[in-house]
Amino acid sequence: MTALPPLTLPPGSFATAFPFHLAFDRALVITQVGASLRRLGPELRTGARLAEILTLEQPRIPLEFSTIAASQHLLFVLASHDSRFRLRGQVAPLTDPDQMVFLGSPWVTEPAAIRQLGLTLDDFALHDPVVDLLQILQSQRATLADLQKLTDRLSRQKEALREANDRLARQFAELERIQGLSRSILETAVDGIITINETGVIEAVNPAVERLFGYESGELLGRNVSMLMPSPVREAHDGYLMRYLRTGQRRVLGIGREVTGVRKDGILIPLYLAVGEVTGGDRPRFTGILHDISERQNAARALRAAKESAETANRAKSEFLANMSHEIRTPLNAVIGMTGLLLDTELNPEQHDCVETIRTSGNTLLELINDILDFSKIESGRLELEQTAFDPRACLEDALDLVTPAATAKNLELACWIDESVPAQIIADPSRLRQILVNLLANAVKFTPAGEVWVEAVAKPAVSPQIELRFAVHDTGIGIAADRLQRLFQPFSQADSSISRQYGGTGLGLAISRRLAELMDGVLEVESKPDQGSTFAFTVQALLAPVDLTLPEEPALAALAERRLLVADSHAINRRILERHARARGMSVQTAASAAEVMALWQTGNPFDAALLELSLLGRDAQSRSNWLDQLPVERASRIGLMAPFGFRGHKRFPACVQTVLAKPLKAAPMDRALLRLFDLTPPTPAAGEPVIPAGPPSRRREMLRILLAEDNVVNQRVALKLLERLGYRADVASNGFEVLEALARQPYDLILMDVQMPELDGLEATRRIRAHWPGPTPTIIAMTANAMQGDRELCLAAGMDGYIAKPINREELRAALAGVRPTPER
Amino acid sequence: MYGMVNKALEGMVVDQFGEEAWERIKAEAGADIDVFISNQGYPDAITYNLVAAASTVLNRPATELLEAFGVHWVVKTAREGYGELMEANGRTLREFLLNLPNFHARVSLIFPHLQPPRFVCTDVTDQSLRLHYYSHRAGLTPLVQGLLRGLGQMFSTPIHIEQEAERAAGAEHDIFRVSWERAAAA
């Protein structure tokens, strides 16, 4: 080693270069301390003993001058006894052999420690790197902290990523499941499913599409969908797509429609197409579902053909039926007409009976044919309803009249209860309403061996000005088992085939009635219990007549008010009807159901002004009835009325106390008249000397008048015939104008009662032809028309008719019209 | 610029405007960096972009933000450990300012890629000096002013700064006349 020339530092330089130096002598007594070290450890003063303040941590040698001197090559670490600071450095000999110096600086590992030791950077020599190392250390720590932060964040992100992955995995599994599902739907779908993009290019098709259009698998992908369409749609399709994308205007989207597709082999196929827009995805897409409707169209065509042929057949059938009916009716009318002529000749009683039977059977047959015709008309929808103003009560009472003889013959009690709610005038079809009522009443009478048949009518408001009328026909007849009720309304069917054998009938009546009720916006229903009876009820909608045509009430009726009346009848329904009717007249009413009850009431002194008693309550014969009446206290028995069954003729043999006899079934007007007569009040003008009990045998003169009734409706025919019969006339029947002409060709008639509206040849035209063919005053032709309009009369007279009566026919009007007709002189 | 600067900027924004604001600023600046590493060098553009984005997002002038950042750097960054040595850089504001040249000499040794600014003190008296600021970066003058104000707060010394020369106005470098009241605490 080359000896360097000795350097000598001036004291100031040494202190600046080594601010923490510490010099000591052989006795280890401090001889000099650097300025910064003095600031660090003020106890390190000149003269102080080194060992008393500092501990030698390194090297591990005895703290003696000689050992220290021998350790100049070792790193020295000195620590203050209170461990407040440590010094790091080395020892060096001085030129004075009895002294050595420690050169170093405080050992710090934290930047904050410098300040804590009360030092600043100025206390360190500029060459001393401690401070800079500290800075490096510090920056490494900051970096470590940053990295830790980064690691934490990465851990959190990794965790979040793992969760996201889990979620994705689950969603992916779900997606796969849905895809599998979709794929299996697509693969197995019978309908074609096709997806295109916004330029019309096919992106996906299912096998059904390829089958439908006859292409190989994969052949359609990537090609324009318009290839599956025939011209001109093929050329226009791209334009449709562009227009939709531009304007959003939907022509097909969301709306299913029938289209035509073209197969690979050029064959056109009818398709039902539904198109939807695919939501989501990178570009607009559309999915179409194609359903082959070839079979449906074929079926529809076949159905149409079948329907047409069925309609043709049905038309043929109807025509056949109409023709046949006409063909049957023509000879039948001749038979009936001839029996009329025959009856006018001298016949012995046996012959007379035979002819009557022929005539009755002929009439029955005619009704049957008319029923069948009616039904076929309804079935074919050719039945048109009239709209005429009429009194529904009169209509109901008319119907009742028609079944009264049959009911009386079976000794059935027939009654009718019309609720006050039923208006006096409605607008509907009176013929059809009466047809239903007659049918139901006739059935009730037919299937009731004993007891009662009664009909109720009520009305309730419907949508103004409409009202709903409800009629219910009750009977105490044989009833119908529950499982047979529905068959009742099927045409040509009766509840039991044995019934048709026992009771006869076509089984058309109920079917016609139900259809008629339905045509009048109503329903017909039945309730029944075997052996207890049935109720057939139906409703119809009617208009309230704009003008109430009810006749003003008879002024004499006012005198009935406050009078006390006893009503005795074994039938509850009759008691109710009379009681309600009398109460409506202001009377006070008591009722009794038996003769004993009447007697008991009479004898308890309960005062009555009058009594209306059921004839049969009083006894079986005239004598016993007379005896019974004689028992009554005279002063109270002065006003007695009897209620007699229809057709009762023994009224002349009643004691004088009997003021009046009221015929059953009970009806409003006769009831009023009977009440008035009971109290000697003036009854309304008796309907032309009205026989209290219906007319006796017709007079010879009346029968001499040959009458032809031209009327197409069966029930109207029956009503008119019945009216004529009561007035003492008999008539033949024609159902349309042609039949009238045929009848006239067969035999002469004095009078034709001519319905104006008839099928095939109406009354007006028939009249014109009659006048043309048989010029002269005969026959007299009187129009019967529901068209109660002002111009109708003129129309009828212009056609050649002689008179005019309105329908429904009023008995008095008919009587007056008939009175003016004389038999043809040449007869 | 070392990561510590961006980190300090982040600290200031999060302290004063919340985490969400910082995320918006980073997004606005296009700085897709989760954590700035103190010792790592980042392009200056990132810092400039962050300041510009902060100005947009927070709707404040960039100069105001830079000055606030300077204060924050001294007060907060020092307190949180980065600047322990800065505190050791002097017992008083005057000592500290006089030591600035040495401080930056040391810093450039430790951070070799740092291009630290250069400070020179002249006309030193007990209560004032003239601080010359040289930097190869432009536009950071408000930051220096903030740093000086932060030092005044750190040493609890009311400080007055007057800019005597301005590089942005064409001067060769920025010159601040810094004066203070006698130190409140030694």
Keywords summarizing the entry:
heterodimer; A: 827 residues; alpha/beta; Beta-Lactamase; Helix Hairpins; 6 domains; 7-stranded mixed β-sheet; 6-stranded antiparallel β-sheet; 25 helices; B: 186 residues; alpha+beta; H-NOX domain; 2 domains; 4-stranded antiparallel β-sheet
Walk me through this protein's architecture.
The complex is a heterodimer of chains A (827) and B (186). By secondary structure, chain A is of the alpha/beta class. Chain A has 6 domains: 13-128, 2-Layer Sandwich (Beta-Lactamase); 189-292, 2-Layer Sandwich (Beta-Lactamase), CATH 3.30.450.20; 298-379, Helix Hairpins, CATH 1.10.287.130; 388-544, Histidine kinase-like ATPase, C-terminal domain (Heat Shock Protein 90, 2-Layer Sandwich), CATH 3.30.565.10; 555-678, Rossmann fold (3-Layer(aba) Sandwich), CATH 3.40.50; 700-819, Rossmann fold, CATH 3.40.50.2300. Chain A contains 25 helices and 28 strands. In chain A, strands 12, 13, 14, 15, 16, 17 and 18 form a 7-stranded mixed sheet that branches. In chain A, β26, α23 and β27 form a beta-alpha-beta unit. Residues 685-701 of chain A have low confidence and may be disordered. Chain B has 186 residues and is α+β, with helices and mostly antiparallel strands. Chain B folds into 2 domains: 3-60; 78-180, H-NOX domain (Alpha-Beta Complex). Chain B is built from 7 helices and 4 strands. Chain B has helices at residues 3-17, 19-29, 44-58, 62-79, 84-87, 93-110, 141-154; strands spanning 118-122, 128-134, 159-165, 174-180. A 4-stranded antiparallel sheet of chain B has the order 1-2-4-3, covered by helices on one side. Chain B is globular. The chains are: A alpha/beta (827), B alpha+beta (186).
